[in-house]
Design goal:
- With about 160 residues, the chain is mainly alpha-helical.
- The protein has a domain of about 80 residues: Arc Repressor Mutant, subunit A.
- It has 7 helices and 2 strands.
- The longest helix is centred in the middle third of the chain and has 14 residues.
- The two termini are about 35 Å apart.
Amino acid sequence: MSRKSLQHLECAVANTVEMVNDAWTILVLRDAFLGVRRFDEFVNDLGIARNVLTDRLGRLVANGMLETRIYQEHPPRYEYRLTEQGKDLFDVLMALWSYGERWTPPADPSRQRVIHLSCGQEARAVAHCGNCGERLTRRDVRIEPPLSVVQERPDTVAAVS
């Protein structure tokens, strides 16, 4: 069963979701950020079915988020490396990690933690404006133009609620 395309929404979030596609893809990207590069390493770490991994890696390569590099000639074996486009998902993955640590933390006290190298503390992702550096909250931004379904509502406010 194939999913309905999200292209009709004409939205950067929808376009990104279309590329990232599902939970396995996010976890493959997470592993790539954690240094996993080889097919069998992904299988062993994630417990993912080989055919599912083949599909997800193929999509990530086709979408320009990963690239392949040969590490063995006979038989040919490839590593999967993040591209610049893939590396740009770091902020998204950090936001997911931070959200998960706050709202759905794993019970294992020895779980992996993200440590900020400059201060040595556990990192927590927060959004900042790329222009002025101020922290972004949902009350500090507005979407222009607003969605028509929101704009047509009589009680619409400009900020994201």
